[in-house]
Write a structure and sequence with these properties.
Elements: E1 2-5, E2 10-13, H1 23-38, E3 52-58, E4 65-70, H2 76-88, E5 92-93
Antiparallel strand pairs: 1-2, 1-3, 2-5, 3-4
Amino acid sequence: MDQSGGVAGLRRSATVDTEVLADEEKSQLLDLLARADRDRLPAPPAPSPDARLCRLTVEDGGEPREYTVSEASAPPAVRELVRHLESKATFVKGRRQP
């Protein structure tokens, strides 16, 4: 997951590997992914200086699926997935976007 934007323009990246999660945590994450995948994701809005965007990449053995959403306009299932990933991941902070 890559997040960017916001007032400070920071970038954050995180990876969650389901192979190292406990069975219950893995099941919860896969359920959240399935619910988010069923939602029709809106196209990200036009770039805005303070908008926070989130790019999710799901790799499950096949072709990676990538979603880019505005956190403000993402469907509830996607916002729940993002919050869950934020709670499980260790972020690497980046520099302010140019």
